[in-house]
Amino acid sequence: MTQQPRQTRRQPRPTRLLHTAAELRALTHEGARAVVMTMGALHEGHATLVHRARDLAGPHGQVVVTVFVNPLQFGAGEDLDRYPRTLEADLKVAEQAGADVVFAPGVDEVYPGGEPQVRISAGPMGERLEGAARPGHFDGMLTVVAKLLHLTAPDLALYGEKDAQQLALIRRMVRDLNFPVEIVGVPTVREPDGLALSSRNRYLAAGERRTALALSTALFAGRERLAAQQALSARAQAAPASRARADALTALGEARAAADAHAVSQAALRRPSAVRTAARAVLDDAARLRPPLVLDYLALVDPSDFTEVPDGFTGEAVLAVAARVGTTRLIDNLPLTFAPEETPDETPEETPEESPRDTPSPAPAGTDEAPGAAV
After folding, report:
1. In Å, what is the CA distance from 269 to each residue of 30, 265, 278?
2. For 206-338, CATH number?
3. Considering the domain 16-198 in this protein, what is its CATH number?
4. What pTM does this model have?
5. Catalytically active residues, by annotation
6. Per-residue model confidence as pLDDT tens digits over 214-228
7. Could you give the C-alpha distances from 350 to 257, 354, 355, in angstroms and in order?
């Protein structure tokens, strides 16, 4: 379900703007401290993170929003200088969403000795997808996240699921390096037409924005294809294994029964391929629009390491896409669950009312006797 932006609510206490870690350490607070890390240009997606942080920290806890445009995660030719700086507006958004503090350090505060010589390495996961498109990006991202976790010392840190690979890497860093903080993911917030909220959306002209809708449309198409296939498989499994069912299939013809069973089983095995195909068809159409969508990648990955999932995969996955429209690069993703294929009881059951030689008419799939399953 698409999460819609929620209405912001003003808190009675004003939000404090701090620029140094010493000022932040001097603040006392009861309960948990929750931090939301941003690069500024706050929108309703960020506000949703702050609302969630407020809920988790409680009325006696403290919510800190960091605003820092990290130069380490911008590569050559990327938009560091172009990235919007809107601190005054950001302070208002944070205050209305319930933040107690906006921590907006300068570069000298975060990197007092200049660019750090010792950095966090994202490892193999950081070289895939976004990491392949933006070499070094995730090393810079993890380095500043580690720094800000030390500077803010939170109990909880919240990040948007829209940046799925970033979230996965932060969770891995916190686990591997024993950071004493709980990482919380918050679902993507979307515009009413499905476009994921992003600070970069403001760069899109009207025609470019129409093309950009293909990203979310492709993801939804992949999700719908998976739901349809899993519903079909559930209906195929709904009829109980019995002598009557076996005899009915025999009456239809062994070859046809075998072909139907094979088709259902193969469709289940190929679900990841079908999801990719459905999503790519939308993106291929968008490549012919004016202005066109220029695809960077479409991937269906395991969220634990961001490797592509194979056909026959079961469990949690992420369908991710990145593309350029004009000069703006956008990303989006959807979480998907590939349910395991149910194995029907292969042993026909006989009942006193049913002779092995009787061949009653089978109940058609989807009727009350063999209810269909919806996903």
Report:
1. 52, 6, 16
2. 3.30.1300.10
3. 3.40.50.620
4. 0.80
5. 46
6. 999 999 999 999 999
7. 21, 6, 7
